[in-house]
Amino acid sequence: MQGACVAGWATAYFFPTDPALDPSTGAAVIDRANLDGGHLFGVMIPGALLGVLGIVLVAVGLLRSHAVPHWVPLLSLTTVLTFAIPGNGVFGLVTAVPMTTAAVGIAYYVWRRAA
User: Fold this and answer.
1) Three-state DSSP class for 84?
2) Same domain membership, residue 101 and residue 49
3) Which residues span the domain enclosing 48?
């Protein structure tokens, strides 16, 4: 859901900027898209929430199964914080470090068990 909405959002701004299109028509389409955020973003938020719900369920499953050390799923739960803390620029990079570390940890322990 989130990916489909991001693709629609990108499409709504990409095609009106085509140089072959009349500039006034392109500007009108972009203005209309800017005024209709509900349709552009209406599916993105539920899709993002479903993604976070999936991460929480995976973290709970990993904690209960003891398949990885506890720090791995606990770091993955920092995804929930990114909804409360806006993550732009350097601050966004800092908030992504725990999630990235958790993803690398999960990949490492999966690879180690497979080898």
Assistant:
1) helix
2) yes
3) 44-114
